[in-house]
Q: What sequence folds into this?
């Protein structure tokens, strides 16, 4: 597999001056993106580039995938957002519910089959791999965990975090990874329920929002998260950070985007999606240690920033449509049996 790493853009974008925002609004070149948080996947640089390259201003938005879907449902008759970004299962669900409309940006045909709706209701923009984002300095001398099973050990009491799998997509993706690791599949989540029930005895931290800063600060020493966040900390933050791909295996999953149905600024939303899938847009994801959905050739010095390819062989793709079908049921079981 190809690995993606830092190409050089800053990870933090400065907010546009107030005068620029007003000028953009006056030209009707602003738009709303749900779930575009600046600390996740380097959306900060993406939002800055969108404004610089195509003159469209998108406010930061810190929703997660589940919150984005709920908001789109609530606003279906009077949409507020123009584009939406979420985990693939939420994108599939949004397409089924008629919350988004078909649109195929240039480059759409280069996205592999299975990672896009054939009509363009959703399409992958990048990929990540689930594992452990570890603040080594915050472990209090405990070894860096290498396996899902390790996290149940007493030395990690109160140190492990994962996003709420009943709401945040990355939380659900982590649950799918743990479930597969202990012999489950997308029709049987008993191993995941047992794992999280046992992990609950170690007092895990379960936030609903992306928690990059909380890992960097040491508040959450170990977080189920994507490789791109761990690499971002490793190469851009002060401290000692690692990404661990669990010994039992894991999953690789895409994040996708859609044009919201009956969006108030539909044409501007299309411009945003065109840019994100363009060569320039796809290159920005590589600055955030992500694999773009369209093919990108990488120099060796970039790939070296990742774990060895042999480690990534433990990460598998899944049937994302089946993963979507199972999401609500698992969320209910988690809330009823674990939380």
A:
């Amino acid at each position: 597999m190809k690995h993606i790493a830092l190409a050089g853009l800053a990870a933090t974008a400065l907010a546009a001056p107030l005068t620029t925002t007003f000028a953009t609004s006056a030209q009707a070149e602003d738009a709303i993106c749900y779930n575009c948080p600046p600390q996740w996947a380097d959306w900060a640089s993406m939002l800055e580039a969108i404004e610089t390259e195509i003159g469209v201003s998108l406010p930061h938005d810190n929703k997660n995938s589940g919150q984005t879907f709920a908001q789109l449902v609530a606003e279906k008759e009077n949409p507020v957002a123009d584009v939406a970004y979420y985990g693939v299962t939420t994108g599939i669900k949004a397409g089924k519910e008629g919350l988004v409309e078909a649109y195929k940006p240039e480059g759409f045909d280069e996205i592999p089959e299975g990672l896009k709706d054939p009509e363009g209701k959703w399409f992958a923009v990048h990929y990540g791999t689930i594992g452990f984002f570890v603040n080594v300095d915050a472990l209090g001398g405990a070894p860096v965990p290498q396996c899902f099973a390790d996290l149940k050990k007493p030395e990690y009491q109160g140190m492990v975090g994962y996003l709420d799998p009943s709401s945040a997509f990355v939380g659900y993706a982590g649950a799918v990874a743990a479930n597969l690791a202990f012999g489950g599949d997308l029709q049987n989540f008993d191993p995941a329920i047992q794992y999280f029930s046992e992990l609950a005895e170690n007092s895990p931290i379960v936030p609903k929002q992306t928690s990059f800063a909380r890992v960097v600060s040491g508040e959450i020493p170990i977080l189920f998260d994507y490789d791109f966040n761990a690499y971002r900390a490793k190469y851009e933050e002060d401290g000692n950070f690692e990404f661990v791909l669990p010994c039992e295996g894991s999953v690789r999953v895409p994040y996708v985007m859609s044009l919201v149905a009956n969006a108030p600024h539909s044409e501007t939303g299309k411009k945003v999606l065109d840019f994100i899938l363009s060569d320039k847009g796809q290159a920005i994801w590589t600055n955030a240690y992500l694999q773009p959905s369209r093919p990108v050739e990488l120099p060796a010095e970039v790939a070296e920033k990742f774990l060895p390819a042999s480690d990534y062989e433990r990460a598998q793709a899944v049937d994302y449509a089946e993963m979507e079908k199972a999401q609500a049921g698992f969320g209910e079981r988690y809330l009823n049996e674990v939380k």
In short: The domain at 128-251+309-337 is CATH 3.40.190.10 (D-Maltodextrin-Binding Protein; domain 2).
